[in-house]
Amino acid sequence: MSFVEVAIKVPLPRTFDYKIEEQLSGLSTPILPGMRVLVPFGNQKKVAVVLGIKNSTDVPLDKIKNIIEVIDDTPILSAQHLELLSFTARYYCYPLGETIHIALPSALRQGESPDKTSINMVALTEKGAKVPSLKAKTQLNLLKQLSQSGKSSLTELKALGFSKKTIDSLIDKELITQTIEHDNQWQSVAPTVGSKPVLNKEQAVACTAINQSSGFSSFLLEGVTGSGKTEVYLQCLEEVLKRGEQALVLVPEIGLTPQTVNRFRRRFPDTPIMLWHSALTDNERLQTWRFCEKGSCAIVIGTRSSIFLPFLKLGMIVVDEEHDSSFKQQDTLRYHARDLAAYRAFQHKIPLILGSATPALETLHKAINNKYQLLSLTERAQTATDNQFKLLDMKGQPDQAGIAHASLATMRQHLNRGKQVMVFLNRRGFSPTLICHECGWLSECKRCSTSATFHKAIGQMICHHCGDQYPVPHQCPDCGSTQIFPNGKGTEQIEEFLSTEFPDTPVTRIDRDSTRRKGSLEKALDEINLGGARILVGTQMLAKGHHFADVSLVIILDVDSGLYSCDFRATEHLAQLVTQVAGRAGRSGEPGQVLLQTHFPEHPLLQDLVNNGYQDFARFALSERDDADLPPITNMAIVRAQGH
């Protein structure tokens, strides 16, 4: 008698044994680890994943149940992939069944067939490539998108906000063509490569070190903003493609995937490149999963969950902006994609590139201790220049909506020259809370008791912790007073004020609220890249890898919020954020200006950051961590209790 050990999506840290009935044991294909089976569990039927076949079990034979059905003919998870998921479950103390459930596309969780392996691709026709203009602006934008990317899937175009009607209209005009690509294994020894710049000495050294490495090796590519880290990625990936291998490129935000894909497709126009992020439909995620597994996709550009994708022949992993907190899952399975990328590269015996202008102290510590090889890029690109920093003392400084009058005057100077100005505040909404001027009541979330943020544009109070929302109250729930006012500043309030203060200058806000609709972020970025005087207002979404050629001034509001915190990582995150935001200026050949509004201009952290840069700050911060026995010098666990 044979038994099968399976993982089931239940909140229990154990696996389960089932009996293989005689009619199932005689199947033409044997039951193998990684296959899905349907099993009885209590009063339900559940999809389970086979972990192994056994000849004995600790479960009494009169209590063990039979498998109902074998779903797959072949495993959907390889032995190596199962080991990755088993390691993840062990390391993050999470049930294996639930870990596997999170890693699988929705269709596979539900027992559906994995064989939906074709994808619709759209490309310009010869006629479409020559069209100079169209009356329909949306149609023209679609043609521009295809001219940049070479080709795009219907999935990507819909994610960018283009409707089926727009696509069909251009097909009818014979300006674009639609084809179906199947899951034939991708093979290439000489990928078509678009034009590429000549590497500087530091870039060439980095590429040589990575390309000549063998087996598992980890590299920290530490490069100042605008130093050409992406070009190093591209030239290293070219070598991977020549070997017919696949690559995974991890990016922190969905908003970075379209611009990254466009750049990669221009470099490798004939190479199948796919996306992976939460905005894809279930069917689209299943297609990407299968294309990766069967080797039909050469490069995947994805957010943190793409670390769980299967690959037929993975040759390299790149983690761009490796310091970014978006790589850490904050609920359920609390994994860190950067750390799993290191384990996965070790599994496959391949290179791992961690790129950042502001490396996490954990990563930098490993590089200093020779666990990672440090590759430094200290020169900004030819069109980028060093920025001029200034700490603006807010003590006694008149301000409006949190912006000092001196900052407003500097903004006018830059806008009058036709330049763009970025105003950064890492707090979305109109104000963090509402306050009653009669009794001091502060708005709270009704579900979790954290503060509820006032969103004026939609008339809602929203909890940024649990997502609960409710209408804005007109009376104080404690004393009944109508004297309720916004307390504090958010990006929505800054946008409203600047639109009034600079009525002739367009103001573009970029945060999670303003970019919620499909295609809204891409539309905003297109407007910014048209050039001309403009004010950009936003949160950390603005700091992540975007190239704004015309931004000459960056103003960072409320710098002080990160200086005094009980979180020992707060100063590290502040330094990273300031450096990343400042890096958006000075990319057009002339020095950018960066104003930091603070009540503590003499603070050692700010002085060190402004005068010596992030690298000097990071090494000093590591010495402080060493003195205090804090991570990454030591290990620390957090015990979190939650009630429902």
UniProtKB/TrEMBL annotation:
<keyword id="KW-0238">DNA-binding</keyword>
<dbReference type="GO" id="GO:0006310">
    <property type="term" value="P:DNA recombination"/>
</dbReference>
<keyword id="KW-0547">Nucleotide-binding</keyword>
<dbReference type="InterPro" id="IPR042115">
    <property type="entry name" value="PriA_3primeBD_sf"/>
</dbReference>
<dbReference type="GO" id="GO:0006269">
    <property type="term" value="P:DNA replication, synthesis of primer"/>
</dbReference>
<dbReference type="InterPro" id="IPR040498">
    <property type="entry name" value="PriA_CRR"/>
</dbReference>
<dbReference type="GO" id="GO:0003677">
    <property type="term" value="F:DNA binding"/>
</dbReference>
<dbReference type="InterPro" id="IPR027417">
    <property type="entry name" value="P-loop_NTPase"/>
</dbReference>
<dbReference type="GO" id="GO:0006302">
    <property type="term" value="P:double-strand break repair"/>
</dbReference>
<dbReference type="InterPro" id="IPR041222">
    <property type="entry name" value="PriA_3primeBD"/>
</dbReference>
<dbReference type="Pfam" id="PF00270">
    <property type="entry name" value="DEAD"/>
</dbReference>
<feature type="domain" description="Helicase ATP-binding">
    <location>
        <begin position="210"/>
        <end position="377"/>
    </location>
</feature>
<dbReference type="Pfam" id="PF00271">
    <property type="entry name" value="Helicase_C"/>
</dbReference>
<keyword id="KW-0862">Zinc</keyword>
<dbReference type="InterPro" id="IPR011545">
    <property type="entry name" value="DEAD/DEAH_box_helicase_dom"/>
</dbReference>
<dbReference type="GO" id="GO:0043138">
    <property type="term" value="F:3'-5' DNA helicase activity"/>
</dbReference>
<dbReference type="GO" id="GO:0006270">
    <property type="term" value="P:DNA replication initiation"/>
</dbReference>
<feature type="domain" description="Helicase C-terminal">
    <location>
        <begin position="471"/>
        <end position="628"/>
    </location>
</feature>
<dbReference type="GO" id="GO:1990077">
    <property type="term" value="C:primosome complex"/>
</dbReference>
<keyword id="KW-0067">ATP-binding</keyword>
<keyword id="KW-0413">Isomerase</keyword>
<dbReference type="GO" id="GO:0046872">
    <property type="term" value="F:metal ion binding"/>
</dbReference>
<keyword id="KW-0235">DNA replication</keyword>
<dbReference type="GO" id="GO:0016787">
    <property type="term" value="F:hydrolase activity"/>
</dbReference>
<keyword id="KW-0479">Metal-binding</keyword>
<protein>
    <recommendedName>
        <fullName>DNA 3'-5' helicase</fullName>
        <ecNumber>5.6.2.4</ecNumber>
    </recommendedName>
</protein>
<dbReference type="Pfam" id="PF17764">
    <property type="entry name" value="PriA_3primeBD"/>
</dbReference>
<dbReference type="InterPro" id="IPR001650">
    <property type="entry name" value="Helicase_C-like"/>
</dbReference>
<keyword id="KW-0639">Primosome</keyword>
<keyword id="KW-0378">Hydrolase</keyword>
<dbReference type="GO" id="GO:0005524">
    <property type="term" value="F:ATP binding"/>
</dbReference>
<dbReference type="InterPro" id="IPR005259">
    <property type="entry name" value="PriA"/>
</dbReference>
<dbReference type="Pfam" id="PF18319">
    <property type="entry name" value="Zn_ribbon_PriA"/>
</dbReference>
<dbReference type="InterPro" id="IPR014001">
    <property type="entry name" value="Helicase_ATP-bd"/>
</dbReference>
<keyword id="KW-0347">Helicase</keyword>
